[in-house]
TrEMBL record:
Comp. bias regions, Low complexity: 49-59
CDD domains, per database record: HTH_ARSR
Skewed-composition ranges (Basic and acidic residues): 1-21, 32-41
Domain HTH arsR-type positions: 56-148
InterPro entries assigned: ArsR-like_HTH (IPR011991), HTH_ArsR_DNA-bd_dom (IPR001845), HTH_MetalResp_TranReg (IPR051081), WH-like_DNA-bd_sf (IPR036388), WH_DNA-bd_sf (IPR036390)
Domain of life: Bacteria
Keywords attached to this entry: DNA-binding, Transcription, Transcription regulation
Protein name per its UniProtKB record: HTH arsR-type domain-containing protein
Region: Disordered, residue numbers: 1-59
Amino acid sequence: MGGERGDGRGGDGEAEARGELEAGEGATQDMSRGEGGDERGWQPVRQYPVAEPSPSEPVSLETVTPWLKALAHPVRLRLPRTLARGAHTTGELAHARGLSAPEVSRRLAALRRAGLLTARREGRYVRYTVNLPDLTALGSDVLEAVLR
């Protein structure tokens, strides 16, 4: 026969398309079983939202404005991306971005005043890193300040 499969069951593609296969036949039965041949099938996963403590007071526009001003310049927007990969000195950032050290220093100072960067002195060098808690909260804080 033209529609025979090697496993002894009929392989009629037209019958499969019409839904005429017997119950329990085919791959859907195997896929619906859990590990070890469990007959219950796939079990739903229930996820419940975790209640976050609400801030004591809503974020104001005056709080968010310095962050947005600090990120308004293209160079100041790109520097945190580089710093997110690890701590860098002013000279390293200047070399990586193809800028002068004084220009990078000015941009870093603006980001630091806004609280988006932290600085750590190591001998005669200062290593800058991204202030991750504040930077990750930036998006939700901006939305909260604008939408309230």
